[in-house]
Each structure stands twice: as structure tokens, then as C-alpha cells.
Amino acid sequence: MAQDIRIAVTGAGGRMGRTLIRLISETEGLALAGGIEAEGSPHIGTDLGTLAGLAAPLGIKASADALTIIKDADALIDFSVPEASLEFAALTAQARIVHVIGTTGFKPEDEARIEAAARHATIIKAGNMSLGVNLLASLVRQAAKALGSEWDIEILEMHHRHKVDAPSGTALLLGQAAAEGRGIGLGENSERGRDGITGARGEGKIGFASLRGGSVVGEHDVIFAAENERIVLRHIAEDRSIFARGALKAAQWGQGSNGKKRGPGLFDMADVLGIE
Fold first, then answer.
1. Between the CA atoms of 112, 116, 121 and 123, what dihedral angle is there, to the nearest 10 degrees?
2. 162 belongs to the catalytic site
3. Residue of 71, 120, 160, 163 with catalytic role
């Protein structure tokens, strides 16, 4: 009989952490290995079942001892901040386990450190873990390839008032898909934060706009606009559990199948879902 996959969670006291704890406890074949909280967090020492609002305690307490928790886990699911994710990546590389990264806002030099860690850990990293968003990215790539540069591309995203980075990781994921479809680099072909007299829109550029307010989980529109017509591809997230479920699927995929553990490397949700 196959053993349960032992999954540790970062930010155990946060909204995503609590959702993950609840789903792990409800999912056959998964077991909670521990919950990580930052030093000084008021949640340290609190039972993870209590944190997640479960009917009964789980007998596992939130801890700042990431090294011990990761050492005893098969996989780490990490929705945190870039600085913490880089530290976790170093630890998962040492432990040679699966690291699912849903954190956004990385700098280019951060990406290089994650790639280095992926020589030893199985890292699945995505700006969005939802099935729908990753299918949307595939559609955006196809549309951008099919339509000429006379079609302007604008990406509009909205999130809750507490989100700290912009554009969102999902918006950048969709922008990257559009750039790949056109065979161009996103960095030198994107326009962000227009304000004042900006001049005419550059042909072939990919524009981004960010809205923040209320409790919006996540809304993304990719707009293809030409003379007298527009195509709008949209994804609306109504509950953050879609990201948690996707992350759990990624952790299971990272463990491999048929008793054969997947090797180290840097993967994304397209790999997990088998999307071209």
C-alpha cells in the first residue's frame, strides 16, 4: 500500500496556508507534515487544525523551525514572499524534496537562485496554480501567434486590497504566453503604469494595468484589440481554494507515479497538466 505524501505548508496562519491545511486533511493519500510561520508570528505554537478552523486539533503545531519540518516532509507548498521562498528553495535542495512555489514578485537574480536549487530539488513554480488560468495561457499563446502585430494586446488584472505586487504573477504569466506566441521577449516589449502624456501606443507592445480593491480573489482579462473588433479572454477566480487544489496536484505530480520518484528540475503547471 502506498504511503501518504507528507506535505508541509508555509505561512500556515495565512489565508492560503489555512486553506491548504484544510484540504490536505480532507484528501486521501495526503498527510500534513507541518506548518511554517515566520519568527515572532503570533501563530507559532498553535495547533494547525485550530488555525484552519477544523472540528478537531491535528496534534501538529505551527513552527518557525523550517529546517526540521522540511527534512521530515516529501513536499513543501510555498505561497510566501520572494525572500522567504529563496531560503526555502535552498532547504528543499538540501533535502532533495518537491518544492511547489506559488510566490510571485521574483527579480531576475532570484530566478537564477531558484534554477540553481532545481538542480537538486523538484521545483514546480508558477505565477498561478489554477487549471483554468494555465489553460487560458495556452489560448493566449495560440491567439497571439495567429494574430498579427496590428492587434494590440492589453492585460488587465484586479485583486484584493492587500496584494502587494503589481502586475500580478498571473498577469505576467499571461504576458509571457503572449510574447512567446509572437516570438518576442516580454521585458523589452511591455508597457506598464501609463500616466500623463505617454505618447502613442507602441506597435507590438504588451500593455499591463492593475486594479486593487475589496476582497477580489483574482480577475484577469487579456484583450486583443484591432480596428473595429476586440477579442477578450477572461478568467475569474471566485475562491482561493482553486490555487490550493492546483498546488496539491503539483505536489503529487512532483512525487512521480508508479513508485518512481520524479527527478530534480524546474517545472511549471503546464508540465503538471500536460499542456503543450
1. 20
2. no
3. 163
